[in-house]
Protein backbone atom coordinates (compact mmCIF):
# COMPACT_ATOMS: atom_id res chain seq x y z
CA UNK A 1 0.00 0.00 0.00
CA UNK A 2 2.89 2.39 0.74
CA UNK A 3 4.21 2.06 -2.82
CA UNK A 4 0.82 2.74 -4.40
CA UNK A 5 0.24 5.68 -2.06
CA UNK A 6 3.56 7.25 -3.02
CA UNK A 7 3.05 6.83 -6.76
CA UNK A 8 -0.51 8.19 -6.65
CA UNK A 9 0.53 11.15 -4.49
CA UNK A 10 3.41 12.04 -6.82
CA UNK A 11 1.16 11.92 -9.88
CA UNK A 12 -1.61 13.88 -8.16
CA UNK A 13 0.85 16.54 -7.01
CA UNK A 14 2.12 16.97 -10.56
CA UNK A 15 -1.37 17.19 -12.06
CA UNK A 16 -2.95 19.39 -9.39
CA UNK A 17 -0.40 20.89 -6.99
CA UNK A 18 -1.68 21.92 -3.58
CA UNK A 19 -1.72 25.63 -2.73
CA UNK A 20 0.78 25.15 0.10
CA UNK A 21 0.83 28.78 1.17
CA UNK A 22 -2.93 28.93 1.62
CA UNK A 23 -3.67 25.52 3.09
CA UNK A 24 -0.46 24.60 4.95
CA UNK A 25 1.99 27.42 5.59
CA UNK A 26 -0.45 30.20 6.46
CA UNK A 27 -2.37 28.22 9.14
CA UNK A 28 0.87 26.84 10.59
CA UNK A 29 2.40 30.32 10.64
CA UNK A 30 -0.53 31.69 12.63
CA UNK A 31 -0.29 28.73 15.00
CA UNK A 32 3.46 29.28 15.47
CA UNK A 33 2.99 33.01 16.08
CA UNK A 34 0.30 32.30 18.66
CA UNK A 35 2.54 29.88 20.54
CA UNK A 36 5.54 32.20 20.37
CA UNK A 37 3.50 35.13 21.65
CA UNK A 38 2.33 33.26 24.73
CA UNK A 39 5.39 31.09 25.41
CA UNK A 40 8.48 33.07 24.47
CA UNK A 41 9.77 34.71 27.63
CA UNK A 42 13.41 34.07 26.81
CA UNK A 43 13.72 30.73 28.56
CA UNK A 44 14.69 27.46 26.89
CA UNK A 45 12.11 25.37 28.75
CA UNK A 46 9.26 27.42 27.33
CA UNK A 47 10.66 26.88 23.85
CA UNK A 48 10.50 23.15 24.52
CA UNK A 49 6.90 23.44 25.74
CA UNK A 50 5.95 25.46 22.65
CA UNK A 51 7.58 22.91 20.34
CA UNK A 52 5.73 20.02 22.00
CA UNK A 53 2.47 21.98 21.87
CA UNK A 54 3.06 22.59 18.18
CA UNK A 55 3.97 19.01 17.29
CA UNK A 56 1.89 16.70 19.47
CA UNK A 57 -1.74 17.77 18.80
CA UNK A 58 -1.65 17.33 14.98
CA UNK A 59 0.35 14.10 15.27
CA UNK A 60 -2.00 12.61 17.86
CA UNK A 61 -5.02 13.66 15.82
CA UNK A 62 -3.54 12.03 12.74
CA UNK A 63 -2.80 8.80 14.61
CA UNK A 64 -6.33 8.68 16.03
CA UNK A 65 -7.81 9.23 12.59
CA UNK A 66 -5.59 6.53 11.10
CA UNK A 67 -6.55 4.11 13.86
CA UNK A 68 -10.27 4.82 13.36
CA UNK A 69 -10.03 4.30 9.60
CA UNK A 70 -8.04 1.08 9.98
CA UNK A 71 -10.57 -0.25 12.48
CA UNK A 72 -13.86 0.67 10.81
CA UNK A 73 -13.13 1.33 7.13
CA UNK A 74 -9.77 -0.15 6.03
CA UNK A 75 -10.51 0.54 2.36
CA UNK A 76 -10.07 4.25 3.08
CA UNK A 77 -6.47 3.81 4.25
CA UNK A 78 -5.11 4.22 0.71
CA UNK A 79 -6.77 7.61 0.07
CA UNK A 80 -5.86 8.62 3.63
CA UNK A 81 -2.18 7.88 2.97
CA UNK A 82 -2.33 9.69 -0.35
CA UNK A 83 -3.89 12.74 1.30
CA UNK A 84 -1.16 12.92 3.95
CA UNK A 85 1.60 12.60 1.34
CA UNK A 86 -0.13 15.18 -0.85
CA UNK A 87 0.06 17.68 2.01
CA UNK A 88 3.55 16.85 3.27
CA UNK A 89 5.64 16.34 0.11
CA UNK A 90 5.95 17.29 -3.52
CA UNK A 91 8.20 18.69 -6.24
CA UNK A 92 5.81 21.49 -7.07
CA UNK A 93 6.55 23.17 -3.75
CA UNK A 94 9.83 24.40 -5.24
CA UNK A 95 10.16 23.25 -8.86
CA UNK A 96 8.51 26.33 -10.39
CA UNK A 97 11.30 28.55 -9.07
CA UNK A 98 13.97 26.24 -10.43
CA UNK A 99 12.29 25.73 -13.79
CA UNK A 100 11.63 29.44 -14.33
CA UNK A 101 15.19 30.37 -13.30
CA UNK A 102 16.60 27.72 -15.62
CA UNK A 103 14.49 28.98 -18.52
CA UNK A 104 15.46 32.60 -17.84
CA UNK A 105 19.17 31.72 -17.96
CA UNK A 106 18.65 29.72 -21.15
CA UNK A 107 16.97 32.76 -22.73
CA UNK A 108 19.70 35.12 -21.53
CA UNK A 109 17.29 36.98 -19.23
CA UNK A 110 19.68 37.53 -16.34
CA UNK A 111 17.57 40.19 -14.61
CA UNK A 112 14.58 37.86 -14.49
CA UNK A 113 16.76 35.00 -13.25
CA UNK A 114 18.12 37.25 -10.49
CA UNK A 115 14.61 38.26 -9.47
CA UNK A 116 13.47 34.64 -9.32
CA UNK A 117 16.41 33.36 -7.28
CA UNK A 118 16.10 36.38 -4.98
CA UNK A 119 12.42 35.64 -4.39
CA UNK A 120 13.18 31.96 -3.81
CA UNK A 121 15.90 32.65 -1.25
CA UNK A 122 14.37 35.76 0.27
CA UNK A 123 17.58 37.74 -0.30
CA UNK A 124 18.76 40.35 -2.78
CA UNK A 125 20.31 38.90 -5.93
CA UNK A 126 20.70 42.01 -8.07
CA UNK A 127 24.52 41.78 -8.27
CA UNK A 128 24.79 38.07 -9.06
CA UNK A 129 26.30 36.79 -12.29
CA UNK A 130 24.61 34.08 -14.35
CA UNK A 131 26.98 31.44 -12.95
CA UNK A 132 26.25 32.55 -9.39
CA UNK A 133 22.52 32.35 -10.07
CA UNK A 134 22.97 28.83 -11.46
CA UNK A 135 25.01 27.76 -8.42
CA UNK A 136 22.41 29.05 -5.99
CA UNK A 137 19.55 27.48 -7.94
CA UNK A 138 21.25 24.07 -7.86
CA UNK A 139 21.98 24.40 -4.14
CA UNK A 140 18.41 25.36 -3.34
CA UNK A 141 17.02 22.57 -5.53
CA UNK A 142 19.18 19.87 -3.93
CA UNK A 143 18.18 20.96 -0.43
CA UNK A 144 14.52 21.40 -1.35
CA UNK A 145 14.31 18.01 -3.07
CA UNK A 146 15.52 16.40 0.14
CA UNK A 147 13.25 18.39 2.46
CA UNK A 148 10.11 18.21 0.33
CA UNK A 149 10.44 14.81 -1.34
CA UNK A 150 13.05 12.34 -0.09
CA UNK A 151 12.89 12.96 3.66
CA UNK A 152 9.05 12.82 3.85
CA UNK A 153 9.15 9.63 1.77
CA UNK A 154 11.76 8.16 4.13
CA UNK A 155 9.61 8.80 7.18
CA UNK A 156 6.43 7.69 5.44
CA UNK A 157 8.01 4.32 4.62
CA UNK A 158 9.56 4.02 8.09
CA UNK A 159 6.71 5.28 10.30
CA UNK A 160 3.66 5.65 8.09
CA UNK A 161 1.63 8.85 7.58
CA UNK A 162 2.54 10.12 11.05
CA UNK A 163 6.22 9.92 10.09
CA UNK A 164 5.74 12.13 7.05
CA UNK A 165 3.74 14.59 9.15
CA UNK A 166 6.40 14.53 11.88
CA UNK A 167 9.10 15.56 9.43
CA UNK A 168 6.98 18.24 7.75
CA UNK A 169 6.06 19.85 11.07
CA UNK A 170 9.62 19.66 12.42
CA UNK A 171 10.92 21.30 9.24
CA UNK A 172 8.35 24.07 9.41
CA UNK A 173 8.90 24.93 13.07
CA UNK A 174 12.67 24.81 12.62
CA UNK A 175 12.17 27.45 9.93
CA UNK A 176 9.90 29.53 12.15
CA UNK A 177 11.90 29.33 15.36
CA UNK A 178 15.36 28.27 14.24
CA UNK A 179 16.73 31.74 13.57
CA UNK A 180 19.01 33.61 15.94
CA UNK A 181 16.40 36.33 16.46
CA UNK A 182 14.33 34.11 18.78
CA UNK A 183 17.36 33.17 20.89
CA UNK A 184 17.19 30.14 23.16
CA UNK A 185 13.44 29.84 22.58
CA UNK A 186 14.16 28.13 19.26
CA UNK A 187 16.90 25.82 20.52
CA UNK A 188 14.58 22.82 20.90
CA UNK A 189 13.18 23.30 17.38
CA UNK A 190 16.71 23.46 15.96
CA UNK A 191 18.06 20.47 17.86
CA UNK A 192 14.97 18.32 17.33
CA UNK A 193 15.07 18.86 13.58
CA UNK A 194 18.80 18.10 13.52
CA UNK A 195 18.17 14.67 15.05
CA UNK A 196 15.03 13.99 13.00
CA UNK A 197 16.84 14.86 9.77
CA UNK A 198 20.12 13.08 10.57
CA UNK A 199 19.42 9.71 8.96
CA UNK A 200 17.21 10.69 5.99
CA UNK A 201 19.68 13.42 4.98
CA UNK A 202 22.51 10.91 4.76
CA UNK A 203 20.28 8.48 2.89
CA UNK A 204 19.48 11.18 0.33
CA UNK A 205 23.17 12.03 -0.05
CA UNK A 206 23.94 8.33 -0.56
CA UNK A 207 21.25 8.03 -3.23
CA UNK A 208 22.68 11.08 -5.03
CA UNK A 209 26.06 9.33 -5.04
CA UNK A 210 24.61 6.05 -6.34
CA UNK A 211 22.84 7.62 -9.32
CA UNK A 212 25.69 10.02 -10.17
CA UNK A 213 29.47 9.92 -10.10
CA UNK A 214 29.86 7.75 -7.02
CA UNK A 215 33.58 8.22 -6.38
CA UNK A 216 33.51 12.01 -6.73
CA UNK A 217 30.35 12.30 -4.64
CA UNK A 218 31.80 10.27 -1.77
CA UNK A 219 35.13 12.10 -1.96
CA UNK A 220 33.45 15.52 -1.80
CA UNK A 221 31.20 14.34 1.02
CA UNK A 222 34.16 13.18 3.09
CA UNK A 223 36.49 16.11 2.44
CA UNK A 224 34.27 19.16 1.96
CA UNK A 225 30.97 18.82 3.83
CA UNK A 226 32.34 19.73 7.27
CA UNK A 227 33.61 23.08 5.94
CA UNK A 228 30.10 24.31 5.08
CA UNK A 229 28.48 26.64 7.67
CA UNK A 230 25.77 24.02 8.23
CA UNK A 231 27.64 20.69 8.02
CA UNK A 232 24.38 18.77 7.54
CA UNK A 233 23.46 20.78 4.45
CA UNK A 234 27.09 20.50 3.41
CA UNK A 235 26.76 16.72 3.22
CA UNK A 236 23.86 16.97 0.80
CA UNK A 237 25.38 19.73 -1.33
CA UNK A 238 28.84 18.17 -1.49
CA UNK A 239 27.43 14.78 -2.47
CA UNK A 240 25.10 16.28 -5.07
CA UNK A 241 27.79 18.53 -6.54
CA UNK A 242 30.26 15.66 -6.78
CA UNK A 243 27.61 13.40 -8.31
CA UNK A 244 26.98 15.77 -11.25
CA UNK A 245 30.53 17.13 -11.54
CA UNK A 246 29.87 20.78 -10.76
CA UNK A 247 31.37 23.28 -8.34
CA UNK A 248 28.98 24.87 -5.87
CA UNK A 249 29.56 27.16 -2.91
CA UNK A 250 32.26 29.79 -3.60
CA UNK A 251 32.04 33.52 -2.80
CA UNK A 252 29.01 35.57 -3.78
CA UNK A 253 28.57 39.30 -4.14
CA UNK A 254 25.37 40.21 -2.33
CA UNK A 255 24.25 43.70 -1.32
CA UNK A 256 27.67 45.08 -2.26
CA UNK A 257 29.60 42.67 -0.03
CA UNK A 258 31.49 39.55 -1.02
CA UNK A 259 30.93 36.58 1.31
CA UNK A 260 34.13 34.50 1.30
CA UNK A 261 34.28 32.56 4.55
CA UNK A 262 30.64 31.45 4.54
CA UNK A 263 30.76 29.70 1.16
CA UNK A 264 33.71 27.33 0.73
CA UNK A 265 33.85 25.43 -2.54
CA UNK A 266 31.84 22.22 -2.76
CA UNK A 267 32.00 19.62 -5.49
CA UNK A 268 34.43 19.27 -8.37
CA UNK A 269 34.46 19.74 -12.11
CA UNK A 270 32.88 22.50 -14.17
CA UNK A 271 31.52 25.89 -13.16
CA UNK A 272 27.75 25.93 -12.71
CA UNK A 273 25.63 27.10 -15.63
CA UNK A 274 22.28 26.34 -17.25
CA UNK A 275 23.56 22.95 -18.43
CA UNK A 276 24.54 22.08 -14.86
CA UNK A 277 21.01 22.94 -13.77
CA UNK A 278 19.70 20.40 -16.27
CA UNK A 279 22.10 17.83 -14.79
CA UNK A 280 20.76 18.60 -11.31
CA UNK A 281 17.21 17.97 -12.52
CA UNK A 282 18.32 14.62 -13.91
CA UNK A 283 20.05 13.73 -10.64
CA UNK A 284 16.92 14.37 -8.59
CA UNK A 285 14.65 12.42 -10.92
CA UNK A 286 17.04 9.47 -11.13
CA UNK A 287 17.21 9.46 -7.35
CA UNK A 288 13.43 9.35 -7.09
CA UNK A 289 13.19 6.55 -9.65
CA UNK A 290 15.79 4.53 -7.73
CA UNK A 291 13.87 4.99 -4.47
CA UNK A 292 10.60 3.89 -6.07
CA UNK A 293 12.28 0.88 -7.68
CA UNK A 294 13.80 -0.17 -4.36
CA UNK A 295 10.38 0.10 -2.71
CA UNK A 296 8.89 -1.97 -5.52
CA UNK A 297 11.55 -4.66 -5.04
CA UNK A 298 10.90 -4.79 -1.30
CA UNK A 299 7.15 -5.01 -1.97
CA UNK A 300 7.61 -7.88 -4.45
CA UNK A 301 9.97 -9.68 -2.07
CA UNK A 302 7.54 -9.38 0.85
CA UNK A 303 4.62 -10.48 -1.34
CA UNK A 304 6.51 -13.54 -2.60
CA UNK A 305 7.77 -14.35 0.90
Automatic annotation (TrEMBL):
Q: Which UniProt keywords apply?
A: Cell membrane, Cobalamin biosynthesis, Membrane, Transmembrane, Transmembrane helix
GO molecular function terms listed in the Swiss-Prot or TrEMBL record: ABC-type vitamin B12 transporter activity; threonine-phosphate decarboxylase activity
In its keyword annotation, does this UniProt entry include Cell membrane? yes
GO process terms (BP): cobalamin biosynthetic process
Q: According to its UniProt record, where is this protein located?
A: Cell membrane
Q: Quote a single Gene Ontology cellular component term.
A: plasma membrane
For membrane topology, the record states:
Multi-pass membrane protein
Q: Where does the sequence pass through the membrane?
A: 49-68, 149-167, 283-304
InterPro entries annotated for this entry?
Answer: Cobalamin_biosynth_CobD/CbiB (IPR004485)
Which pathway is this protein engaged in? Cofactor biosynthesis; adenosylcobalamin biosynthesis
Q: Name one Pfam family in it.
A: CobD_Cbib
Q: PANTHER family from the entry?
A: COBALAMIN BIOSYNTHESIS PROTEIN CBIB
**Family indicated by similarity:** Belongs to the CobD/CbiB family.
Its annotated function is as follows: Converts cobyric acid to cobinamide by the addition of aminopropanol on the F carboxylic group.
Protein's recorded name:
Cobalamin biosynthesis protein CobD
Per the UniProt record, the source organism is Sterolibacterium denitrificans
Gene (name only): cobD
Amino acid sequence: MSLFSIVIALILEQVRPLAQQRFVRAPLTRYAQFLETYCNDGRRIHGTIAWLAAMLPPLLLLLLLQFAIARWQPLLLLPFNVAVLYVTMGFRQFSHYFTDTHLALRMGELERARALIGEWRGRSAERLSSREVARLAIEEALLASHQHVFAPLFYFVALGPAGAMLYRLALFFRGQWGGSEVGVFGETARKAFHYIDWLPLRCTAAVFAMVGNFEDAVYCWRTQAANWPDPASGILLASGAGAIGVRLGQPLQEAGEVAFSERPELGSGEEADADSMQSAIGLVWRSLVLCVLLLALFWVASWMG
